[in-house]
Every structure is written in structure tokens, then in C-alpha cells.
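Hi R.,

Here's the chain you asked about this morning:
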Amino acid sequence: MFLLGLTVGLPTALLTMFAYAGLLRVMKWTPELDELAADDDEPVDSGTLAHDAPSEQPSTGSAASRSPNREPVTGESGVSGARTSTQQAVQEEAGATRREPALFVSVTPVLVSLLLIAAGAAAEALSIKSATVTLLTDPVIALFLGAGLAYALASRVRPREEISAAVGTALSQCGPILVLSGISGSLGSIIEGSGMADVLGKAFSTGFLPPLLLVWLVAAVLHIALGSISVAGITAAGILAPIAGSLDTPVVLVALAAGSGALFVPHVSSNFFWMFQSLLGFTTRGTVKTHAIPMTLASVISLPIILVMSLFA
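And the predicted structure, written out as C-alpha cells:
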């Protein structure tokens, strides 16, 4: 999967960039319509505006009040200003003394998980039988070790409340994804247990559509309908998984075709569509130009590459 994925991914990335560069000459980028204004991105404090805005009417009062060198009023506002200054000084001092880990140390938990999973694939390919290696390279255990290492590193430079809030946010975001992915992954077992695998096998053997093109179409339709790349890819691959052994197409190419189709036309139903928009400050129109179109190009360009690879598989 890694090797064939690179074989498909690298030329897809290059060809997509060239194709998108050609489209940029045709598409007109209008900042007024494709980019969010600064006021739309950043909330403005009304109190700050009221304090900083110049007075439209000339000030009336004593000469002392009109003098730029007047002494500050020592009332309630003076006390609150002193408190604010003290709080800012404490925050700046805390920020100055906070230790930041090096970049390599920060990405170590991710690298550890990836290396363990890759080592498990290599051990399986080399027929290495070891209970310790099997345990440590299990994807669930590898991800758990990476998460534990990340927590340990974060606890040295961040307060416990901040870490707990980050963990809570992560769990609330990944929970629905895990549920949807689990439901989609179970579709293959349902197809096999209900006898639908035989029906699908006969339908696919008629030659109406190549299996890879069919799984690509299913993933594309699911992505347009659901907006989730992972759910669309897993569901499309799950439909053909029970009968993949009876087909002349390698299972890895079925998975690649599902991933290719799951990139087709990301739009407003996709979570990442809105994340892309908010992070880069684009409007919906600008996000379609910079996100939906390149992703669709990558989906369409990668399909012929996978079909060509199936001829030599």
C-alpha cells in the first residue's frame, strides 16, 4: 500500500499542480468576492473601538481636561487600569519563562507511531514471528504509545488544565469520525453475511463496469452525499471487499480507487471545506476555487493511473 500509494500519489500531485496552474489562467481571482475582509475574520471589541475612536465633537471642559499632559484620574478606572497592567505583566512573565520544546521533539510522538506501524508491516513481510513485535506494532497500541508520549511531553511545558481541554476537544472531534468509520467498515461484513456478496459478484462479472471504476464511482457519490472522505472511501472499499478475492484486481488497487473517488468534489457538506475556509480567510467561492477544484482534479487524474497499474498487476 505504501509503495503503490507513492507510485500513484507523486505523479498525481505533479499533474494536478500543472493542471491547476493552467486553470488559474482562466479563473479570475477577485479579492472582493473570494477573500474575507479583515473585519469578517477578526472580532472587534466594541469597548476598544469606543476607547480608541476619535471624538467627532470638540471637547468641552476645563483646560486641564483638554491638556494632553494632564495627570491620569485616580479613580475606579485608574484601579482597573493598574490591575490590567499587573495581569498583563504576569502573563508576559509566564510566557517568557514557558519552555518550548524543539520542533523535532514536538513531532516525535507522530514519528514513533508511524515507525512502529511501518515496522509491523515490514516484520509481516519478512515473516518475523515475535509476540513483542506484534504487540508494539499493532496500530492501536502504536497510536496509544504516541498519544501517551505526546501527553508526557506536553505536561512538561503546559498546565494540566490546558492539556485536559485539548484532550477533551480531540475526543469530541474524533468520536463521530470513529463511529461513522466503524459503521462503514462493518458494511463489508454485512454484505458477506447476508449473501449479497454472491449477488454483487455476479453483477460485477458481467463486465458492465470495471471493478476499479465502480468503486471509484461509489466513493465519489458517497463523498458528495456525506462530505466525509474517510467514510466514503471505507464504505466503497467495503462493498467490494467480500468479493475482492474472486476478482482479478488486487485488493490494494481497490483501496486506492476508493481513496481516489473519495476526493471527488468536496463541497459545503465537508468539515474540511469549512476548516480550509476559516484558516485561510476565503469566502465560499474562494474555497471552491482553491480547495474543491484541486481536490477534484487529483481525484480525476489519479483514476487513469490506477487503471493503468491494474493492467500490469
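The first helix runs from residue 2 to 26.

Let me know if you need anything else.
M.
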